[in-house]
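Q: Can someone sanity-check these two? First one:
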Amino acid sequence: MPLRPVQVNIKALDHAALGRFWAEALGWQAHAPGATTYVGPAGDLVWPHPTLVGIDVVPVPDPKTAVKNRVHLDLATTSAAHQAELVARLRTLGATPADVGQGDVPWVVLADPEGNEFCVLEPRDVYRDTGPIAAVVVDCADPRAMAAFWGEATDWAVRSRTDDMAVLRSAAGVGPYLELFRVPVPKTAPDRVHLDLLPYPGDDKEAEVTRLRALGAADLDIGQGDAPWTCLTDPEAHEFCVLSLP
């Protein structure tokens, strides 16, 4: 069956420090199960989480460039006071204001301590049950075509689709949304943020990768060598990985 999105992968010079930032930002907990820092709900490490999408912060040797990531997180708030409190708290944790050309909007654009852009949204009813991450947002040229790919690639259902925006969410109606927004600027550099997908127990990872290639995914070599995960790009060259079952 199709794959499930299980985590957002964020590259970092200091994965432990950035993991702590995101744990504090989301009210979650940073775990260090190996060479990366995983951020998930507080308590014992549960991976994959049955309803939420976690964050896996991965060490890399190079800092983020000035190029805006084409994938970012939107954080949910419950009131105007909560939005203001969260923005203030994030600033004390090391977030900084970011100008991505947003103009006068009701949400606040920030960058994490390593420069990755994210948004703190004003309260919206649609995100009242998502948890702290409202949405994983992807810039793209053709939201309709991208929704067709991601709807087939994953077990998330397409909720809406227009020329300007497409929205997907878990078929069970839990966790964050995947939102595909049309932007005029083409992709020019690798992203430091991407989705990781996981097969269901009993499914064949290599068969799933073959299926993704048939849908329009392409192989990606980032020097991963003989890793247990497979690196791919979607039809608009956004990077993502297919992980192996634990």
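And here is the second, same format, sequence then tokens:
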Amino acid sequence: MSQQHLVSREWLQSHLDDANLVVVDCRFTLGKPGVGLNEYVEAHIPGALYFDLEHDLSGPKAAHGGRHPLPSVEQLQTLFSNAGIDQDTFVVAYDEQDLAHASRLWWLLRYLGHEKVAVLNGGFAGWRQAGLPTTAEVKPAPAAKTFIPNVQPHMLVGMEDVKQRDEKTALLDSRAPERYRGEVEPLDPKAGHIPGAANYFYKHNFAPDGELLPTEALQERFRAVSGKDEIIAYCGSGVTGCVNVLALYQAGRTDAKLYAGSWSDWTSYADNPVATGEE
């Protein structure tokens, strides 16, 4: 189970009563704080807890580090311990926005050495479309456990790592093509992309039904970079880039890394170069 990056609706429904399972609702709407929590209160998968992207899965903003900086190890250790997560707990994360926020939780847990975590394929939308049960009952958090972090530094790169990469490293920009090309930039002060990056829009990892593409299709999607020694994904602030990392893991590249600060961190350094158009 520890290498299971995705779980199906059927699997989750049949395991909801497992003693060592924690389900986490990660719904969040950018620019509309509180909406995700309100949606959770209205209806969620029975027994699920709620983690907020900005309050729980991000740290305080600073001059650098991006719009959604990584939380400290101590912050995450407290969050996970209070959620009843320890080394024996299997965590399933879900959201309703192309798995981005659920993938952020998946990545954070794996970064702290917890491999017993998966994302619900199809998310909450697929769960509801299948007619599976939801509830408005908010249960008390489970009894606290002791989460022991084991940080995996190889999963993360910083701005200097990106600047100093060589031709054996593929850099994947996970944002929409128009943002990559620099035609629009709704969130960050500069438009464009990191020079040398290739555009792999994270939404192209999905089939029309909202589920992640099958493994073979994901392997084909990333075939052009499959021969690279290293693959780094980034996005605007280190959230949707986690979907590309998840997809790469599904495709067999479990060495894929995340530039967590992403474009919002890169452009916080005035001297960093910016490219526009296609590469």
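A (reply): Looked at the second one. The chain is about 25% helix and 15% strand. The first helix runs from residue 9 to 15.
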